């Protein structure tokens, strides 16, 4: 039986790059982050160190604690409660407000009562450790580092990072996707998807208007236009001398095989998540409008229907089925899902390749409604009949 690890937003390959920095302070912060993460990984003891931190019902009530630089949650000071006043600490308020937006998003969009759908309390911890370049979900609460101030700023300040980490809790309480290889990459992708949707919902952005980036506002604050990951363009989230080029693949033929070890990113869970990320983006823009109303509903229902060891193929098949359940078999939404997975080279089981609509060069899913498709097919048939008639006439004229 595999022990569930803590789920961190920053993958080990990025921290490894920081170990190569010419700046000794950046190297030390990266080393400290890796050592602390290694200490916490897999044991989940951190969540048991706080008395009364059990996952008890509480109508999604928020509480934020201040670790004040300690690398443990034990002794963290109460900083803000659901009924209390705002704090003078920006990080405390950012964590508190972010948890509220996420709670309201899941309640209003999916009628989900907090992380476990039973009103689970939402506890957040800020100022964890010193220059800690990460944020994580440990199974019962959110923990945020302040970053090193150069490559990372306060991680509580990013709504999509908040949404990403809390969604690990939703996944744990639904499909329970195992955190390694393809199921682990799906786990990471689900968090990226709903982390992005939380931000889009808050900003009331359509699929076309959204930036589809994760962590852009807390990573490399001195570099504009980059992000930890891009659902729209996996492999193109960043490209700079400090970190090199974003390694995420955007299709199955580029899948990266890594060892199922902590330093191998548990089989590449943060890397290969680019493939299902791109599929979601294609489905969202193919359906159009607000992504949480179309593709988001499909992905959420698919998550609830998935098993812990689901592969990309399994999840693709489930999203296709759920699109039919929600919007109708043969609907444009189901066609968009089919095209989206075809765009990342995953063929829906039992569906001929000829039925997958093409993905255009700019990444948008090309699709037609039923009447337009029928008209096109009739036009093609008429053209063939006309051509055959001309050939017969020509043949008669030559005899």
UniProtKB/TrEMBL annotation:
The signal peptide, as residue positions, is none
The protein's required cofactors: Zn(2+)
Task: Report one GO cellular component.
Answer: extracellular region
Q: Does the entry feature the keyword Secreted, yes or no?
A: yes
Q: Where in this chain does the record put each Peptidase M4 domain?
A: 91-172
UniProt keywords, alphabetically: Hydrolase, Metal-binding, Metalloprotease, Protease, Secreted, Zinc
Active site: which residues? Answer: 165, 270 (proton donor)
Catalytic EC class: hydrolase
Q: Which GO terms describe its biological process?
A: proteolysis
Answer yes or no on keyword rRNA-binding.
no
Which Gene Ontology MF annotations are present? metal ion binding; metalloendopeptidase activity
Peptidase M4 C-terminal domain mapped to chain residues? 175-346
Top-level taxonomic group:
Bacteria
Record localization: Secreted
Q: Which Pfam families match?
A: Peptidase_M4, Peptidase_M4_C
E.C. numbers: 3.4.24.-
Tell me which family the UniProt entry assigns to this protein.
Belongs to the peptidase M4 family.
> What is the recorded function of this protein according to its Swiss-Prot or TrEMBL entry?
Extracellular zinc metalloprotease.
PANTHER family, A to Z: NEUTRAL METALLOPROTEINASE, PTHR43579
Q: What is this protein called?
A: Neutral metalloproteinase
């Amino acid at each position: 039986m595999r022990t569930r690890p803590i789920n961190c937003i920053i993958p080990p390959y990025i921290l490894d790059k920081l170990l190569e920095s010419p700046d000794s302070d950046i190297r030390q912060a990266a080393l400290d982050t890796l050592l602390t993460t290694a200490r916490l990984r897999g044991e989940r003891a951190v969540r048991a160190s706080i008395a009364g931190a059990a996952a008890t019902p509480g109508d999604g009530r928020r509480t934020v604690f201040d670790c004040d630089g300690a690398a443990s949650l034990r002794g963290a000071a109460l900083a803000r409660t659901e009924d209390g006043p705002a704090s003078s600490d920006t990080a405390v308020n950012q964590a508190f407000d972010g948890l509220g937006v996420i709670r309201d998003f899941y309640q209003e969009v999916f009628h989900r009562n907090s992380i476990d759908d039973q009103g689970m309390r939402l506890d957040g911890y800020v100022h964890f450790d010193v220059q800690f370049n990460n944020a994580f979900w440990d199974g019962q609460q959110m923990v945020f580092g302040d970053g090193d101030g150069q490559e990372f700023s306060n991680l509580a300040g990013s709504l999509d990072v908040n949404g990403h980490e809390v969604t690990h809790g939703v996944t744990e309480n639904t499909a329970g996707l195992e955190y390694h290889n393809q199921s682990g990459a799906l786990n990471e992708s689900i968090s990226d998807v709903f982390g992005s949707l939380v931000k889009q919902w808050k900003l009331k952005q359509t699929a076309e208007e959204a930036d589809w980036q994760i962590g852009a506002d807390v990573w490399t604050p001195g570099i504009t236009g980059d992000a930890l990951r891009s659902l729209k363009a996996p492999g193109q989230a960043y490209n700079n001398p400090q970190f090199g080029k974003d390694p995420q693949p955007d299709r199955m033929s580029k899948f990266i095989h890594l060892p199922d070890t902590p330093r191998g990113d548990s089989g590449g869970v943060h890397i290969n998540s680019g493939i299902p990320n791109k599929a979601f983006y294609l489905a969202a823009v193919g359906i159009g409008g607000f992504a949480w109303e179309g593709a988001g509903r499909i992905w959420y229902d698919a998550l609830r229907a998935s098993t812990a060891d689901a592969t990309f193929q399994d999840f693709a098949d489930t999203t296709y089925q759920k699109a039919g359940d929600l919007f109708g078999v043969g609907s444009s939404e189901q066609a968009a899902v089919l095209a989206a997975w075809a765009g990342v080279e995953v063929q829906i089981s039992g569906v001929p390749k000829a039925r997958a609509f093409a993905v255009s060069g700019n990444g948008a899913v090309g699709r037609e409604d039923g009447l337009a498709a029928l008209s096109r097919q009739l036009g093609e048939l008429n053209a063939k009949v006309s051509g055959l008639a001309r050939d017969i006439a020509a043949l008669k004229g030559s005899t």
